[in-house]
Amino acid sequence: MTDASAGRYRSALLFGAPGVGKGTQGEILGKIPGFHHFSMGEAFRNLEPDSRLGREVQTYSSKGELVPDDITIELWRESVAKRVDAGQYDPARDLLLLDGIPRNVQQAELMDSSLDVLAVIHLTTADKEALFDRLKKRALKQGRADDAKQEVVQRRWDIYQADTQPVLDHYPAGVVQNIDAIGAPAEVLLKILESLAPIQATRFADALG
Question: What would the CATH number be for the domain defined by 9-125+173-208?
Answer without folding.
Answer: 3.40.50.300
